[in-house]
Structure formats: C-alpha cells, structure tokens
Design a protein that fits this description.
By secondary structure, this protein is an all-alpha fold. The protein contains three helices and no strands. It is globular.
Length: about 70
Amino acid sequence: PHTARCCRLIKWTQEHMAGSKVELQAVLRGCTDKLLPLPQYKQDKRFLRIWIQYVSAALPCRTHPMPALSV
C-alpha cells in the first residue's frame, strides 16, 4: 500500500506541478525516506523506480556540467 500511495503522489506531482523540480524532489525524498526502512520493500521494483527517480531529480542538470577541479 505504501508504494502505491507514493506512486500516485509522484504522478500527481508530475502532472500538476510540472515546472516545480523542488516540489518533485521533496515528494520523492519523502517516499524514499518512508519506504527505505521497511524490509518488505527492499526487493520491490516500484521502490527501485522511485529511488532512481529521486536520484535523477537530485543530480545537477546535465546541460550545466560541473567545472573540472584543478589539483
């Protein structure tokens, strides 16, 4: 039930707040924080999809690569 609720909330956020990356990140983080400690979701493909979406949303935009570090 938790993953289904999270999936619905993520979908709603994507549809109704399409321009708000911050809002989507908050929803994805909330879902991953809620599901991560629950052992029944460790092998759940839906949780994996949520986790991948969260990591992808948290990464910096690919059109603005990080500057190279000089050592």
